[in-house]
Amino acid sequence: MNTNKLQTPCFVLDQRDVVDNIKEFQNALSSFFPQSVISYSVKTNSLPYILKLVKEQGCYAEVVSYNEYNFAVRIGFPKEHIVYNGPMKSKETFLDAVRHHSIVNIETWREIEWLQELPREETFEVGVRLNINISAISPEDENHPNDDSRFGFSYESGEWEEALARIAELKNVMVVGIHSHREPKTRSVSFYHNVISYVQDVIHEYNLKLKYWDLGGGFFGSMPGKPTYYEYAEVFYKTLSADLHDISIIVEPGNAVVASGFDYVMEVIDVKKHDGNIYICTDGTRNDVDPFFHKSDYFKEVIYQDEVGDVASQPQIVSGLSCLEYDRMFTLPAGERRLQPGDHIVLHRVGAYTMSLTPLFIHYFPVVYLKTSSDERPQIIREEWTEDEFLQKSIY
Ligand SMILES: *Cc1c(COP(=O)(O)O)cnc(C)c1O
């Protein structure tokens, strides 16, 4: 990529990558299922351009708060193409979504209460989220012992049965869907085998007549050596018992759709040398690309200004613009080529849980470009936030 014309720091979106991911996932699902839906997890990267792009590809929007629900409506998703999950629904948007045939998966007791306010003369459909304890159903995928979940109604505790019973009291509301989402770090194919086996036992025990099964997200995107969309779809189909083969399968990928489509570009602005290290200061920040502060390295590429350069005999600690000591992104070991002011560093595959979690700390949201061929002018799809955007709605 030619980064010369870019204002740094910035994100660069390769929209073809996102579209290819969606198409491949759609093809994989439709090789097995007569009906399937990809519902894009809005929280994973809520850049409006991305929402527009996934809508154009026929995806639904998966939202987990009243803000995201209103946002998806504003972007233009028909309400029946919105999957509404999570505890942070407002009563108003919850009832609006149920009445307009969104796919609404019940997460809290208060939502069951709210159902009573629906008009009695019409019938309505909802789904319910089932609690999944990874250690109990797929111990090889657990992140830690008793890898439990805060979400959904638990079968083992009796709350699942209680939730179904309370909904059944409402003669005008039918449970037509089940929602099961967990995100093990392994993202393994066998995890979905274990989840499906567990959930379908519950479906059979309660003799649920379902229209859809929302299998959640948690998938790898296309990446060498990792499970493919096809392998996930195949395990869904092979694990499902024959009586469930016609169910509509919904997946809610976030990471699998957007992670690979975004690069982050930063420029070296200063170099210092002391304590046995070379400290590289860039105009980027770890806040933009590692908001959970767990990464120690990246899929990275250095674009040197000069064609040749000497080798650094000390480690080069590549760090960010902020005043935080821990704003250090990665270390190049001794023996790598020396970085100099003006050099560019590109971090690849940084589209998931980065831009949507960036704090407005010291530096505001960076500019976002669309990837274009090297002779074209870079196209901006979100301008850099300045003090104007930061000040909006403040009273002072
Ligand atoms: C976050 C989330 C997703 C997306 O998860 P990925 O790992 O990014 O695919 C899907 N569904 C629900 C309910 C979520 O909370």
UniProtKB/TrEMBL annotation:
The active site is at C323 (proton donor). Residues 21-259 form the Orn/DAP/Arg decarboxylase 2 N-terminal domain. PANTHER family: DIAMINOPIMELATE DECARBOXYLASE (PTHR43727), GROUP IV DECARBOXYLASE (PTHR43727:SF3). One of its GO terms (biological process) is lysine biosynthetic process via diaminopimelate. Keywords: Pyridoxal phosphate. The modification N6-(pyridoxal phosphate)lysine is found at K43. GO terms for molecular function: diaminopimelate decarboxylase activity. Pfam families: Orn_Arg_deC_N. This is Rhizoferrin biosystnesis N-citrylornithine decarboxylase FslC. InterPro entries: Ala_racemase/Decarboxylase_C, De-COase2_N, Orn/DAP/Arg_de-COase, PLP-binding_barrel. Its cofactor is pyridoxal 5'-phosphate.
